Amino acid sequence: MKPLDWQALLVDGYEPLKKAQRVFRHLPRDPRCTLCQSPFAGVGGKLIGWMGRKPSRKNPNLCQYCFDHLPSGGLEIDIGVVFADVRGSTSMGEQSTATEFAGRLNEFYAIATAVLIRHDGLIDKLIGDEVMGLFLRGLSGADYRRKAALAALELASAVGDLPVGVAVNAGIAFVGNVGSGTVLDFTALGDAVNVGARLQSHARPGEVVLASDVYALVEADHPGARLDRVEVAGRDEPVDIAVLTV
User: CB 3.0–4.6 Å: which of 29, 59, 75, 212 could bond 240 by disulfide?
Assistant: First the structure.
């Protein structure tokens, strides 16, 4: 088997996928695989499903063929990363039944998934009360950083009365399939991801914390952010941020 060209997939746009997109995008109907554009619903979805192109259990916005068949490995690239967390989930769980609590979290997952997919992001993690989304040039387009910021702002607005804090960061990370044997996980690792996770802890319910260089990409449409400099656990240098309330 020819080794996967991670540069082509994650940065340049993978030519075999571009060819598949030109075919599958004409088949009805949305939602679709972010990579190959194969449909998941309608007549097209039923036909393509027989080819193994059903939604991946790992990432519902990718089909099993594109995502689950990726080999181990990856590449260091610049990414945008979004973290969203339900604040006070421990108290929420204490004050409700397990079924009610699961229902609220599923509501949060559904909203976050829809928003991230709409902005061409990938669902990296749905864990506990937290969602992590990735934005990569090869999959999200050249304005992947700005899309990450816009997705974060829309997500914070879309959760209604759920107390959700959101953060956005960008920078170099290792992106690819990591793990061992049959246990592989497509994810991003590195300082950009760690800082994004830490910035989330500074976001109160209804707030979006953006790294200052990311905020610069949306400042014209979303002026008036509160500028700050925060200490990040495990890092020597503080991080400049902008905080927007939605």
Answer: 212
CB atoms within 10 A of CB 100: 12
Enumerate the H helices of 54-168 as residue ranges: 64-67, 89-94, 98-118, 137-140, 144-158
Alpha-carbon distance of 51 to 53, in angstroms, equals: 6
Instruction: Report which of 120, 14, 2, 123 is spatially closest to residue 58, judged by C-alpha positions.
Output: 123
What backbone phi and psi angles, to 5 degrees, belong to 122? -110, 140
pLDDT tens readout for residues 126-183 = 888 899 999 999 888 899 999 999 999 999 999 988 999 999 999 999 998 888 777 7
Q: Residue 30 phi/psi, 5° resolution? A: -65, 155
- DSSP string of 97-113, one letter each residue: -HHHHHHHHHHHHHHHH
Q: Measure the CA angle with vertex 54, ends 48 and 60; round to 5°.
A: 140
pLDDT digits (tens, 9 = 90+) for 4-31: 778 877 887 665 666 777 778 778 878 8
Q: Which amino acid is at 95?
A: Q
Four-point Cα dihedral 121, 39, 125, 67, nearest 10: -100
Strand ranges (E), 137-201: 164-180, 183-189
Q: Contact, 82 vs 167, CB < 8 A?
A: yes
For 15, the token pair is 């030519």
The closest of 126, 173, 164, 156 to 218, measured between CA atoms, is 156
φ/ψ of 52, rounded to 5, equals 85, 15
- Cβ pair 163, 84 in contact under 8 A: no
CA-CA distance, 26 to 40, in Å (whole number)?
Answer: 13
